[in-house]
Design a protein that fits this description.
The complex is a heterodimer of chains A (318) and B (244). Chain A has 318 residues and is of the alpha/beta class. Chain A contains eleven helices and 14 strands. Chain B starts with a helix and ends with a helix. Classes of the chains: A alpha/beta (318), B mainly alpha (244).
Chain lengths: 318, 244
């Protein structure tokens, strides 16, 4: 439903997006990740037709965003960065304005507004001017505006930024609930959000895609993937490290001290699953184990590894 | 066409949702009154017409209309609502037209509220009401001209102060080019065609012509084509800004 080909955007000498290609199908929730200034928002602005690309093209539901903008924009619900809205209007007036602009009239417009309001839980603040609302409510007004016409494509720039944990949870439930019938792109800094709602994660850095896969695939790239962490009393530290290193499924060991305990992380040797070996070893040696768990991987560590390695490599080449 | 209406409605309501509308209208009316009665010595003239009143319109508009125009686009850009507005499925010309017409309608409301002076002059004497109607129409057209210039300039910046100052300067040039002072300066040496051309770009020339009571099609066409020109430029400016 969203097809991006070789999209490029320069601001003066600075290239914000460099030949980015991407396809998002119905049913996908794509998490757009990247450091600040990586080109996430710029890409979203080009998909929605707010910025014109220097090269490349974007098609939304088959409509070219540049040559057939209105058809493409009708198919998109967009939550811009910071969820801008007209502060002097009340939420109700604002949403009715959006409904009317999107071609709904009278009772139809009211029904659309009511549905969006119910989904985003805005009932309590409908008649307050938007500028008097808290950040969380403002964000939800922006969300309501984006989903009002039940668009097949949803583009959301940091939809849960500024929300409290409860609100984050309800927004994520909302997004998951809509995921089946829509193609959704969500940009975020919150890696836990990717695991919570995304079917696919794309990491971009300096305007290029540096990783693209399911959250599980990205986790598998983590060196913590399948690593085993156990906590034992500090006294057993050296023995434990020695024995763990002796296991064939373990490649290396790292430790961190924590009030009287020591946490030992055993990293797997290419693709091995050391959890069974480690737990058997602990039983055999009769260690006083306080914690023992296998890790799926750490997304923040993958993120850091990918985005900083690339930067360093580029700096080296230059 | 149907999308001009919701934009117009939203913009027009926005004036009255903030103190802007009331402050503007009060200042507009006070300034009109002050100039007409104190500076223009309306009573001392002992003539039952409103030429003194209308004579100050270009100079008042010169500062008041840019104050309305400066926020049209600059504010949208500053608050980020521009991104929302331009990603809605609305043709750009409809957005430009809706915003412009709302601002023009607002100025029309302020102008209409000067009606007591019309009543006064009718009470005091027997003015030519045809001339007064023509003058009101001319005044509104002139305000529309200033507004179109201001809207276009507002689209170029996110800074309202810059928008205001530049608009005042450009509007001033469009006003002054018909003043005797300027024309005399050129008349001494420049060919007549040039003098006429300069004078024909002046709001003063066309407004004065209309406020004599004769609505000449040429004057009306001047204002409408100037408005169309600057609104087209407005569309182009907004579109160019999309390229970053």
């Amino acid at each position: 439903m969203i097809e991006i080909e070789e999209l490029t955007k320069r601001f003066g000498p600075y290239t914000a997006v460099a030949g980015l290609s991407l396809k998002v199908a119905k049913g996908e929730v794509l998490g757009f990740l990247g450091p600040n200034g990586a080109g996430k928002s710029t890409t979203m602005k080009m998909i929605t037709g707010f910025l014109a690309p220097d090269a490349g093209r974007v098609r939304v539901c088959g409509h070219d965003v540049e040559s057939d903008a209105l058809a493409a924009q009708s198919a998109i619900g967009y939550l811009p960065e910071g969820a801008p809205a007209y502060g002097d209007m009340t939420s109700r007036q604002f949403l009715l304005f959006i409904a009317e602009i999107r071609g709904f009239k009278g009772a139809d417009a009211k029904a659309k507004v009511a549905a969006a309001v119910a989904k985003t839980e805005l009932e309590g603040v409908l008649d307050q001017p938007i500028e008097t609302l808290s950040k969380g409510f403002k964000r939800r007004v922006g969300l309501a505006q984006a989903i009002l016409h039940d668009p097949p494509v949803l583009i959301m720039d940091e939809p849960t930024d500024g929300l409290d944990p409860n609100q984050k949870h309800s927004v994520r439930t909302l997004i998951r609930g809509m995921a089946k019938e829509k193609a959704i792109i969500v940009s975020t800094h919150l890696l836990e959000e990717v695991e919570a709602i995304c079917t696919r994660a794309v990491i971009i850095d300096r305007g290029r895609i540096v990783a693209d896969g399911t959250p599980a695939e990205l986790l598998a790239r983590s060196r913590y993937h399948n690593a085993v962490t156990l906590a034992v009393p500090a006294a057993q530290r050296d023995v434990a490290i020695g024995k763990l290193k002796g296991l064939t499924s373990v490649s290396s060991v790292e430790t961190t001290a924590r009030d009287g305990l020591v946490e030992i992380t055993a990293f797997p040797k290419n693709g091995a699953l050391p959890i069974e070996d480690v737990s058997a070893l602990a039983v055999r040696e009769n260690w006083d184990v306080k914690e023992l768990y296998a890790e799926a991987g750490r997304l923040d560590e993958v993120f850091r590894a990918i985005t900083t390695h690339d930067a360093r490599r580029k700096a080296g080449a230059a | 066409m149907k999308q001009v209406w919701p934009i117009f409605k939203r913009e027009f309501a926005a004036y009255f949702a903030t103190p802007l509308a009331y402050v503007f209208i009060v200042i507009f009316l006070l300034a009109m009154g002050a100039f007409t009665f104190y500076v223009g010595r309306f009573y001392d003239n002992s003539i039952a017409d409103l030429s003194v009143f209308f004579g100050y319109h270009p100079w008042l508009y010169l500062f008041l209309v840019p104050a309305i125009a400066m926020r049209l686009w600059a504010e949208e850009r500053r608050t980020g609502t521009m991104e929302l507005l331009l990603t809605l499925p609305v043709p750009l010309w409809a957005t430009v037209a809706g915003k412009y017409l709302a601002a023009w309608a607002f100025i029309a409301v302020a102008l209409a509220l000067t009606f007591p002076i019309w009543l006064t002059v009718n009470y005091l004497g027997d003015p030519d009401n045809g001339v007064i109607v023509a003058s009101y129409i001319g005044s509104l057209l002139m305000a529309g001209g200033y507004l179109a210039i201001g809207a276009c300039i507002s689209a170029t910046t996110s800074n309202q102060v810059i928008a205001f100052v530049v608009t005042v300067v450009v509007c001033f040039l469009f006003t002054i080019s018909g003043a005797p002072l300027v024309l005399d300066f050129f008349r001494g040496w420049a060919p007549l065609a040039l003098v006429t051309a300069i004078s024909s770009f002046s709001f003063l020339t066309h407004f004065t012509a209309i406020s004599r009571g004769v609505i000449d099609l040429r004057d009306v066409i001047f204002f409408f084509s100037l408005i169309a020109l600057f609104l087209t430029a407005n569309v182009v400016v907004v579109d160019l800004k999309k390229s970053g």
